[in-house]
Known about the structure:
6 strands, four-stranded antiparallel sheet, single chain, about 55% helix, 4 helices, two-stranded antiparallel sheet
Amino acid sequence: xxxxxxxxxxxxxxxxxxxxxxxxxxxxxxxxxxxxxxxxxxxxxxxxxxxxxxxxxxxxxxxxxxxxxxxxxxxxxxxxxxxxxxxxxxxxxxxxxxxxxxxxxxxxxxxxxxxxxxxxxxxxxxxxxxxxxxxxxxxxxxxxxxxxxxxxxxxxxxxxxxxxxxxxxxxxxxxxxxxxxxxxxxxxxxx
Length: 191
């Protein structure tokens, strides 16, 4: 899944990873602050800055690639779900044609329903001459063979940065204010 993939990008060991790179950068910055004319410290700061930038670029590229992979998998799964729905409708057509359903056809439909249930939540209604399959609360197969295909709609939304305003009180307590609801002076945004 996407979250697990992103989490693995930021997995670190004690001596390596983004935190270690950032710490080395700040250490070299502190060293240069103590002796601003040192060419060795300037070189070390530049080298550690380059490492930090490369590390960030690498993480960004890895996350972008993970997102592309997840998007491809998502569309592949949608195609598979639609294929299963079509196969179920074809089986229902054969079952109707024979008037009495054979166990072989019913078993095949049951297996397809089980496979479909691995992708989405389904609800099936069966009567002697009626079959209905719902995904969520939407009917995707009705009257045995009418199939409604599943489509993905990608909605791009602007990122909303959320952070908290923290107010430290005299009695050693802290009040935290959601930045989406409160201004930096802790007054309500009157949303």
